[in-house]
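The protein record filed here.
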Amino acid sequence: MTEKTQEYEVIVVGGGAAGLSAALVLGRARRRTLVVDAGEPRNAPAAHMQGYLSRDGMSPARFLAVGREEIARYGVELVRDRAVDVTRAEDFAVRLAGGRTVRARQLVVATGLKDELPPVPGVAERFGRDVVHCPYCHGWEVRDQAFGVLATTAMSVHQALMVSQWSADVTLFLHTVAEAEPTDEDLRRLAAAGVRVVPGEVAGLVVEDDRLTGVRLVDGQVHEREVLFVAPRAVPRTDLLARLGAELSETPFGTYPVVDGRGLTTVPGLWAAGNASGFAEQVVNAASRGYRAGAAINGELLMADLDLAVAAGAADAEAPAVRR
C-alpha cells in the first residue's frame, strides 16, 4: 500500500441510499469497504422523502447523515470525492478526482441518475417545491390543489391520469411535445378523470410571494395553477459501467446495465444498485437493492477465498515430502 494507492475488498461508488445500504451490510460482514461519495443525491431538491416505512417525512439530507453515521460504526471508510476513471486487471482500480487511486476485488456502482428538466423558465427554480415529478413522492402533500401537468414525453397523458388520484382539478398542458398529443382513447380517459387539455406552448410560470400561482402560454393566456407536475429526462450515470464493458440495455427511460436479481452486471465482480440500475428505484427500493448486493458480494468473496484455500491445501497434499 502506498500513499496514493489503497486497497480494499469492496469499493462502493455513490453515497446515496443504495451505496450506503450496501456498505452497511459489508461493514457488518467485516469487509474492508470504501464509499466514494461525490455528494450529488438525486432527491437533494426535495425537503422531505415519503413512502419509506419508519422514515416517512425525513429530509433526504438527514437520512444520508444517519446512514453515514451507521456505516462508520462498522469501520467503513467514506471519502468525499468523485470517481473519474476505472480499469481492471486482477482487481478494480478506481482513480479519484483528488488524485488517489483505490483498488478493490469487487466494485459497486451506485451513482444514480441526473434529472434533466424541460427548459421552461421557472421550472428548475421551483423543482422540489411546487414543481414536482412523482405523485407517490409528493401527491399527499399537495393533494386537492390545482394541478398542472407539463407534457414532456409520450407518457405525459399517463402522468395526468395518475395525478388525478390526488386532485379533482388537473390541467394537461400539451406544450410542444407532439408525442403527447392525446389519442381518442386518451381523450375519453382524460374526460372520465376530469382532466382538462390545453394546447399551446408554455412560456413560463407565474410566481407570486414565492409560490406558484399560474402557467403562462406564449399567447399570453394564464391558467391559475398551484402545483405543476413535470417528467424530467432521466440520465443514468453509467460511465464507469460502460468503461468496464458491462452490457447496457436501452429502455424507454434511458440506458441501464443488464443485471441479475442480485445486481451483478455482465462483468464479474461489478455490481449496480439503485438508480444506476433502473429508473423506478425510490429511496426504499434503492436501499433494498443495495442491501441485496452487499449480502451477495460478501458471499462471493467468502466462497472465492474458501476455494483458494481448498486449492492450496490440495497442492500442499500433492507436494513431495522433504527428506531430512
Observations:
- The longest strand covers residues 5-13.
- The mean pLDDT is 94.
- The two ends are 39 Å apart (CA to CA).
